[in-house]
Amino acid sequence: MIRLSRKMILPAALLAALFQTGTVGKMVVERNTLLREGTEVWLETGFVDPRDLFRGHYVTLRLAISQIEKANVEAAELPGPGQPVWAELAQGENRFWQVTRLHAAPPDAPQSPVLRGTLTGSHGDSYWIDFPVDRYFAPKAEALEFEALRQDGKLGVVLALAPDGSAAIKGLTMAGDVIYSEPLY
Q: How far is the C-alpha of 88 from the C-alpha of 74, rounded, in Å?
C-alpha cells in the first residue's frame, strides 16, 4: 500500500478531481459536437413504456429499422448474433430513412450515413438489429406527454450520426413535425 505524506494528500486529491472533471467535460463536449455537427437522419419509431422504477422516466423507442426484410437490403457476409453491424442508410418516404446495406465492419467509403448496431439474429426473411438509441430519458411530465401522443400519429426520432456510426438522439417528431429538440447544454 502506498502511503502519502500529509503534504501530498491535497495535491493528489486535486489532481484526481481535475482528472474526473476533465473526463466528464470531454464526454459532454463530444456529445454536443455530435449533436451540432453530426449527419441528421429521421427514423420511424414507436414508443413503448415511459417509466422505470430504478432508472426514472424514459421513453423506449422501437425503431422501424430494427427489423429489416432481407429482400430490401444488400448484405455481404454478416457476423453472428451479438456482433456489431453497420447499417448504411438512405432517405426514404416521409423523411424517414431506411437501411440499404449492412456491413460486418465499418465501411471504408460509405455512400451514405452509417448507424452502428448489434445483430441479434436472422429469422426467416428478416434481420433483427438492436441500435444503441433505444431509450430517450425525459422529465416526468414530458415522458407522460409522449406516452399520450404515441397513438396520435407517425412517431419518429431525429438522430445525429458520426462518421464511425455512433449516434445521439437530437429530437423527436410527430407526423413530420419536430415536437422536441435536445438542447446542446
A: 10
C-alpha cell of residue 160: 445525429
Lookup: cell for 165: 456510426
The residues, any chain, with a CB within 8 Å of residue 86's CB and separated by 6 or more, are 102, 103, 104, 105, 106, 107, 110, 114, 115, 116, 117, 165
Distance CA 30, CA 133 (A): 16
Rounded to whole angstroms, how far apart are CA atoms 138 and 147?
11
How far from 145 is each of 100, 148, 176, CA to CA, in Å? 33, 5, 17
**What region does 165 belong to: left with phi over 0, alpha with psi -120 to 50, or beta?**
left
Q: What is the model's pTM? A: 0.76
Contact 19, 135 (CB under 8 A): no
pLDDT, tens digit, for every residue of 17-28?
Answer: 999 999 999 888
